[in-house]
């Protein structure tokens, strides 16, 4: 449902402490909170302070194929073989010509391929920026009506008030949200000035207040309400400012700003919807998944396009294919069959195979070993092959296998996979490598915490957690990689059942009492 955006009008009222105190007897001044208040804590399981059971892939990475003592020769649709220079089973030397061809490939086609890759790169950067915006969205939610307290005193109405000699009377409400404002009768000729605002805030220990002001017929408690308007006040206290000589430039004071809101009188329906971004959590999740898939497809397209461009460059520069090493010619096919079935027209075998470099997170490094089997899938043909890990490097790579702009908090270690020469792979093309799970090991989700809930002290990280007695406990956590630049993987220290404190201020300390927060208290709506 579309929502009309209301223009916000901000009005600043400055109250200097010295002026306020000297202006009139009985002027109200701000007093600090006298009683300790509960600290809000937010559930991990409900998605307020993190994500529970977020499924990660099972060790998937990607890399380019390189060859060693195996040379498959592929013919593209723009090549026509003019002569095959070798026979099946023939021994050849490095540099011998295997076949010659003519090409219809033009410089214009090369330019088009290059431009296509460059456009994909632009689209990728745009998609990543759009994903960052999606990740910033806060979902809309429905705020249920509060349950009435059966022991609470009944709220007064205007008809219950004694108004003689008064300019305003607050008669009901809390003032904490636009749905539960303070209701204040206001004499028609009275002004909402700084003294009235101070009085409204006095003793409440808050920095914001929602107030609905109401005028009645003939300013009578018997008259109907003729006009009402809602104001949200926000209080900002500033310290005294002195110049370099110690002279007072401006005294300490309090600044009030306010904006209008539409009174709802606690009604249900749309008035109880907190709109935030205008999207539901499900819609945000769907947009995020779709954008991530778009990014993945663009990254795939760029890598494939770059590989194809290099092959096209080589084709356009030369009309012959030479042996890259000493070996034996095997598997010669005719051009039509090879192109129709996507097979090499011949192979030169020297007893080698194919290699690809994968990478694994340091968190999963202990789960892989030399000799372990790996599933390898060609991005070009979709064919899958079995590979074997033949080497795991002891040092992390400089550029990790980060997922959608994740963090470099986790190191990634390269490993080399060998695929035997029977596979139909092509040098320079990309494949995916997936570590095989041990038998009985199912897919499992991971726990992620919102970075805003984490405190860093030197090399250590902490959170404040609600303990079994309901009081705050400072707990050390160990974190892994970052997701979307917003969440960090929990390795150790907290579980999905925990409630975490936020925001951090002087009230957040060990032993502080807690109460469970909601989307509204978290985002201040």
In short:
The protein has 6 helices and 31 strands. By secondary structure, the chain is an alpha+beta fold.
Mean pLDDT: 80
Terminal CA distance reads 19 Å
How many H/I helical runs?
Answer: 6
What is the CA-atom radius of gyration, in angstroms? 35 Å
Cα shape = elongated
Which blocks of ≥5 consecutive residues have pLDDT under 50?
Answer: 1-36, 400-408, 439-443
Structural class: alpha+beta
Residues in helices, as a percent range? 10-25%
Main beta-sheet annotation: 9 strands, antiparallel
Beta fraction: 35-45%
Number of strands: 31
Outline the structure in words.
The protein has helices at residues 17-23, 107-136, 194-201, 281-317, 335-341, 519-523; strands at residues 11-16, 39-43, 50-55, 60-64, 66-73, 79-84, 91-92, 97-103, 141-142, 168-172, 182-186, 208-216, 225-238, 241-242, 248-250, 253-261, 273-274, 320-322, 327-330, 346-361, 373-378, 384-392, 412-420, 430-435, 445-450, 455-457, 460-466, 472-483, 487-492, 499-501, 514-516. With 525 residues, the protein is α+β, with helices and mostly antiparallel strands. Strands 4, 5, 7, 19, 20, 21, 22, 23 and 24 form a nine-stranded antiparallel beta sheet that branches. The protein has a six-stranded mixed beta sheet with strand order 1-16-13-12-11-10. A six-stranded antiparallel beta sheet has the order 3-25-29-28-27-26, with no helix packed on it. A hairpin with a 5-residue loop joins strand 21 (373-378) and strand 22. Helix 2 (107-136) packs antiparallel against helix 4. The longest helix is centred in the middle third of the chain and has 37 residues, at 281-317. The relative contact order is 0.20.
């Amino acid at each position: 449902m579309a929502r009309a955006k209301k223009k916000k009008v901000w009005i600043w009222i400055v109250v200097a402490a010295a002026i306020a105190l000297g202006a009139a007897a009985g002027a109200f001044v701000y007093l600090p909170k006298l009683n300790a208040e509960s600290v809000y804590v937010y559930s991990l399981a409900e998605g307020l302070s993190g994500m529970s059971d977020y499924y990660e892939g099972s060790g998937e990475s990607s890399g380019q194929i390189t060859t060693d003592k195996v040379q498959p020769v592929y013919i593209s649709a723009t090549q026509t073989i003019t002569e095959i220079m070798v026979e099946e089973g023939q021994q050849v030397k490095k540099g011998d010509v295997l076949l010659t061809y003519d090409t219809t490939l033009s410089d214009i086609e090369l330019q088009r391929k290059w431009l296509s890759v460059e456009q994909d790169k632009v689209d990728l950067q745009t998609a990543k920026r759009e994903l960052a915006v999606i990740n910033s969205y806060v979902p809309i939610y429905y705020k249920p009506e509060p349950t009435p307290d059966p022991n609470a005193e009944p709220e007064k109405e205007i008809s219950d008030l004694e108004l003689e000699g008064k300019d305003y009377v607050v008669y009901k409400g809390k003032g904490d949200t636009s749905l539960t404002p303070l209701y204040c009768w206001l004499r028609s000729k009275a002004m909402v000035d700084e003294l009235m605002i101070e009085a409204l805030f006095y003793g409440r220990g808050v920095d914001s207040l929602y107030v609905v002001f109401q005028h009645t017929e003939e300013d009578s408690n018997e008259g109907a309400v003729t006009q009402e308007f809602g104001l949200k006040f926000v209080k900002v206290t500033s310290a005294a400012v002195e110049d370099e000589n110690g002279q007072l430039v401006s005294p300490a004071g309090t600044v009030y700003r306010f904006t209008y809101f539409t009174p709802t009188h606690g009604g249900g329906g749309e008035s109880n919807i907190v709109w935030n971004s205008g999207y539901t959590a499900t819609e945000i999740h769907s947009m995020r998944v779709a954008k991530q898939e778009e990014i993945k497809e663009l990254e795939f397209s760029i890598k494939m396009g770059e590989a194809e461009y290099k092959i096209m460059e080589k084709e356009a520069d030369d009309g012959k294919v030479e042996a890259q090493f000493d070996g034996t010619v095997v598997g010669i096919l005719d051009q039509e069959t090879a192109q129709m079935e996507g097979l090499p027209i011949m192979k030169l075998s020297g007893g080698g195979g194919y290699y690809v470099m994968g990478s694994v997170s340091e968190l999963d490094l202990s789960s892989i070993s030399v000799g372990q089997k790996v599933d390898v899938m060609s991005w070009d043909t979709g064919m899958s092959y079995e590979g074997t890990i033949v080497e795991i490097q002891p040092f992390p790579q400089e550029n990790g296998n980060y997922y959608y702009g994740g963090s470099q908090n986790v190191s990634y270690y390269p490993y080399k996979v060998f695929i035997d020469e029977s596979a139909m792979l092509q040098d320079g093309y990309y494949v995916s490598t997936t570590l095989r799970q041990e038998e009985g090991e199912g897919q499992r989700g991971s726990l992620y915490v919102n970075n805003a809930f984490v405190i860093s002290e030197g090399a250590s990280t902490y959170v404040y957690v609600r303990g079994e007695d309901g009081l705050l406990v400072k707990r050390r956590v160990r974190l892994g990689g970052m997701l979307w630049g917003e969440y960090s993987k929990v390795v150790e220290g907290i579980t999905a059942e925990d409630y975490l404190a936020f925001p951090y201020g002087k009230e957040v300390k060990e032993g502080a009492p807690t109460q469970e927060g909601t989307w509204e208290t978290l985002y201040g709506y």
